[in-house]
Design a protein that fits this description.
The complex is a heterodimer of chains A (about 775) and B (about 180). Chain A has about 775 residues and is mainly beta. Chain A is built from seven helices and 41 strands. In chain A, a hairpin with a 7-residue loop joins strand 28 and strand 29. In chain B, the strands form two sheets. In chain B, strands 1, 2, 3, 5, 6, 8 and 9 form a seven-stranded antiparallel beta sheet that branches. The chains are: A mainly beta (about 775), B mainly beta (about 180).
């Protein structure tokens, strides 16, 4: 056959060739085409049998429907490579590859129930899952693909209890249970994402498409990650490469009317016993957004991200993978937000339409703007000593290059006002012993960060040059016993931080600091399910976080917030104790209900306190903020529920509330999200002709007005409560045997003018108005 | 493979002894340390100066402010001098402002002095580097001088020394006490 194929490829188009390739087994009648595949169709989440699922052989008319019990049998198959497509009403099709040599018994999995109810408990007794004893939520790649226009942080916003700390529409970072910034860490494919995380106006440099799955663990629970996060952990995983020897992948595109944005993504993967690979490329271009009344001038954005993962199995005992990713973004910031002193701030906040607003749309990005490049490479090796014990060896390198531009006089207009270059090197060894009912893990990690200011700004740096060496180790133990599951662990990190700080007084000189800290994390989680429908989880964590460079040494004017920020080199480590309780109740295929409550106590909670002093400079007076430590208490509740009222109607609701108090002053801690109530109604439509898995969804959210806030930290009025409505429509179809999905979403359906409390630009401008998003996904 | 890995580990630990690089103590070229409003009594030719000097920028030490005494019922012409005295030799920033005249405007806000513009940019709009005013009877008050970068010179009132709709970035905003004596 091969010479014929080669001949064909010389003058046939590739697509045609593929068709020929797939139909060849059926043309070659001389072959023994009497093989069969049989088995059952199972639900991925519940392991229940799925009746009446359609199983078809791609590229042929051969196909069957599983019987009332979930069994299926496909006959008259020829030997060779076969792709099976499993589909069912109300869920996305799954493709499976089989290299058919004889009659084959194959159980097929489909995400049926999980697709209907998002929060279904995973009851898989063959393998129990890590971190299940803690409150965690996952976002799947299909969810990411059905909102292709969203940036990394916005993708996380659908999780109850996760909100965004924003600096306009483009720059946002997640707030988990009221904590953000230095207190939330991201593990990007096993590597601690390292950049200028201290900045509230610095978004994570991650392309959401690079993830097969994003997991959010609330609180400091998982000890195995070398992080400093007291608030929560976000795990970004590129996932394994499917055992699929043909080039396959998917293409995604979304257009947004507001900002006239184009978002395009291509993912490719190919499995080969010698070397498996998968690659992902994303490009975005976006112009000025629009509120219901005016353009948000200079809020355009450009993003380009590419990553590749290579996997090689050297033997059954040893495998290695390499992940390389590069992320670039250029983000415009609403010009009116860079106000220069107290007088200007007052003027700007009272302005109906922000200063500098243009009457026309533009893709132009002028200062103030940010330019970020992030390179991440990780080399991971897995070495199995026995079938259930292995070592992971990991080495990673990251480079983060950030330039921020301000509006400056002509002579220095092209010079960045902030220019930082960070190198990060890390290495880790981890040992896992995975028994039937228990997992033991231990490891050591070393991480070195070197941060330097590039001498091109002509402005004294806000953040000093520093190097930070973290050496840590952990041990964790997970045990499953009857209806119980428990996870206990501890980690210790020794931190050496050297910084070179420029003195505030004249003549300026360099002051060297050399500080050592010991961070600990002790955590215990217990999960109990007396009956299958009911689950209680409780966890307790004690954690310390050493102060970060910005908290210790920052010195200078922070443009975006119009304040002089002063670090305190005497700050001690932040200590916290968090207790949480989560209860989940399920009625299979009907209802899931989950309540999470937590109490988080802090000693030496580090925060920016307005000193009440206004410092006079030639540019006017500026309020002075300084980093202080206090005792603090943060508590809250997250409720989420989903109800499948009938086969075609689903309601889901959520509510989250956080209260954060400075125990010493009795006042509220600033920038804690408002309470949020969300509701959505989803209709699952019957298949119509070639249109399958069609859905209509209406989302409503109500953000309460901030009631408990500290007036001293507010420059203007606190925004009013607001309602937001959005509508979503999606349908799947097949074209030439390829799965195609279309969706249309309308955000801010009523075109309401509103401002969000945790958006730092709320003093200056409204949020974006109505936005139509039209998207398409193609699987091939 | 494992050896390679440990080699990397050793490589990483080599940096332990590495101190961070010394930062560069550049005093911003675009820093304005000093504003002088030089006013000349048109009759006598006497020159007086309002001076606001802050050599360390936003940091530590308070600025030094000097004010003259003005003569009542006199006519003055004024000129603005902007300096960066943190560099050697001292840099004259007002020359740069004059070069980028379209992008700059000074505003004079006072309840006791009615300052009028005495210069224009290439589009005929005021800059404010040159100005004039007449003093009235003896009294005291304040004078606020603001330099805006990229103001909307076409916006309502901006040409007439009204800052309300000007927008742009504030490069300078200083307030002087004014005293007029007989």
């Amino acid at each position: 056959m091969k010479p014929i194929l080669k001949l064909l490829s010389m003058y046939q188009l590739r697509t045609k060739l593929l068709l020929v390739l797939f139909s060849l087994p059926f043309l070659a009648l001389s072959q023994n085409c009497s093989l069969e595949i049989s088995g059952v169709v199972l639900d991925k989440a519940t392991s229940e049998l799925v009746p009446y699922a359609t199983i078809s052989v791609e590229g042929s008319s051969n196909g069957v429907i599983s019987d009332s019990l979930g069994f299926y049998r496909i006959t008259d198959l020829c030997p060779g490579e076969v792709h099976l497509v499993i589909s069912h009403v109300g869920c996305e099709s799954v493709r499976t590859f089989v290299d058919l040599k004889g009659d084959t018994l194959l159980n097929l999995e489909i995400d049926h129930f999980g697709n209907i109810l998002d929060q279904v408990m995973v009851k898989d007794h063959h393998e129990f899952h890590e971190h299940d004893s803690y409150a965690k939520t996952e976002i799947s790649s299909s969810k990411i693909k059905s909102a292709a226009e969203k940036n990394f942080s916005s993708q996380l916003e659908s999780i109850i209890g996760v909100r965004l700390l924003q600096n306009g529409g483009n720059i946002s970072k997640p707030i988990i249970n009221g904590l953000a910034g230095n207190r939330v860490s991201i593990m990007n494919n096993g590597v601690l994402q390292s950049g200028q995380q201290w900045g509230n106006d610095h978004a994570p440099e991650i392309d959401p498409f690079s993830a097969e799955e994003i997991t959010v663990i609330k609180g400091a629970a998982a000890v195995e990650y070398p992080v400093n996060s007291i608030g929560g952990l976000i795990l970004v995983e590129a996932g394994e490469i499917d055992n699929e020897p043909h080039l396959h992948g998917n293409a995604n595109y979304a257009f947004e009317s507001n900002g006239r944005a184009h978002n395009a993504n291509l993912q490719l993967a190919k499995y080969n016993k010698k070397l498996a690979w998968k690659a992902n490329v994303t490009a975005r271009k976006k112009g000025d957004g629009h509120t219901p009344d005016y353009f948000l001038t200079n809020t355009g954005a450009e993003e380009f991200a590419a990553n590749i993962k290579l996997e090689k199995k050297f033997s059954t005992r040893f495998s290695s993978d390499l992940y390389v990713s590069h992320f670039y973004s250029r983000l415009g910031i609403l010009a009116a937000s860079h106000i220069s002193n107290l007088t200007n701030l007052e003027l700007a906040t009272n302005q109906e339409i922000p200063f500098g607003t243009e009457s026309n749309f533009s893709y132009r990005i002028d200062p103030p703007s940010q330019n970020v490049n992030h390179l991440l490479t990780r080399w991971n090796n897995e070495w199995f000593i026995t079938d259930n014990s292995w070592f992971d060896f990991e080495a990673a390198f990251q480079r983060n290059r950030r330039k921020e531009f301000d509006i400056r006089r002509q002579a220095s207009a092209n010079k960045p006002a902030l220019s930082l270059d960070q190198y990060n090197y890390s290495g880790a060894v981890k040992y896992t012993l995975d028994g039937d009912e228990q997992i033991n893990k231990a490891g050591i990690q070393v991480n070195l960060t070197q941060n330097i200011n590039i001498n091109e700004t002509d402005i004294l740096p806000l953040i000093p040059n520093y190097s930070l060496l973290r050496t840590g180790g952990f041990y964790s133990y997970i045990k499953e016993w009857q209806n119980w599951e428990a996870e206990a662990g501890a980690r210790l990190d020794f931190i050496n931080q050297k910084a070179k700080v420029i003195s505030q007084s004249l003549p300026r000189e360099v002051i060297s600091y050399n500080e050592n800290y010991l961070n600990y994390l002790i955590s215990l989680g217990v999960s109990y399910s007396p009956v299958e429908q009911f689950n209680v989880k409780t966890s307790l964590g004690a954690h310390s976080r050493s102060p970060q460079v910005n908290e210790l040494y920052s010195n200078g004017l922070h443009q975006g917030v119009s304040g002089i920020e002063l670090g305190d080199s005497e700050l001690k480590s932040e200590q916290s104790l968090k207790a949480s309780l989560s209860v989940q109740y399920d009625i299979p295929k009907r209802l899931t209900f989950q309540v999470e409550t937590y109490v988080h106590y802090f000693e030496n909670y580090i925060y920016l306190q307005p000193t009440g002093e206004n410092r006079l400079t030639i540019r006017g007076a500026f309020p002075v903020f300084s980093y202080k430590e206090t005792e603090a208490l943060i508590n809250g509740i997250d409720i989420s529920t989903e109800l499948l009222a009938t086969d075609w109607l689903k309601w889901s609701g959520g509510y989250s509330l956080v209260r954060a108090t400075n125990s010493e002053t009795g006042k509220a801690i600033p920038f804690i999200p408002t309470d949020l109530l969300s509701n959505s109604l989803e209709f699952i439509l019957n298949d119509m002709g070639r249109l399958r898995n069609s859905r209509v969804k209406i989302d409503h959210s109500f953000a309460f007005m901030k009631v408990n806030f500290d007036e001293e930290t507010e420059f203007g009025d606190v925004p009013d409560a607001y309602n937001l409505l959005s509508a979503y429509l999606s349908t799947n179809t097949a074209v030439l045997g390829k799965e195609l999905k279309f969706y249309l979403r309308i955000d801010n359906l009523l075109n309401s003018s509103y401002r969000s409390y945790t958006n730092r630009l709320r003093y200056f401008a409204d949020e974006r108005g109505r936005n139509f998003i039209l998207g398409i996904n193609l699987e091939f | 493979m494992i050896y390679k890995f440990f080699a990397l580990f050793v490589f990483a630990t080599l940096f332990i002894s590495c101190d961070p690089k010394d930062p560069d103590i550049t005093n911003g070229e675009e820093l304005i340390t000093t504003l002088i409003y030089e006013v000349t009594d048109n009759d006598s030719g006497t020159i007086s100066e309002f001076i606001f000097r802050d050599l360390d920028g936003e940091d530590g030490n308070d600025p030094v402010v000097t004010v003259p005494v003005l003569k009542s019922n006199s006519s003055y012409s004024g000129s603005i001098i902007l300096l960066n005295e943190s560099v050697d030799p001292t840099e004259s920033v007002d020359e740069e402002v004059a070069e980028e005249d379209l992008d700059h405007q000074l505003f004079f806000d006072s309840e006791i002095l009615a300052v009028a513009y005495a210069d224009t940019d290439s589009e005929g709009n005021p800059i404010g580097l040159a100005s004039s005013f007449n003093t009235g009877d003896a009294g005291t008050g304040t004078l606020k001088i603001t330099l805006r970068h990229k103001p909307a010179k076409d916006a309502e009132g901006v040409k007439d020394n009204d800052i309300t709709n000007a927008g742009g970035e504030t490069d300078i905003e200083v307030t002087f006490d004014v005293s007029i004596e007989d």
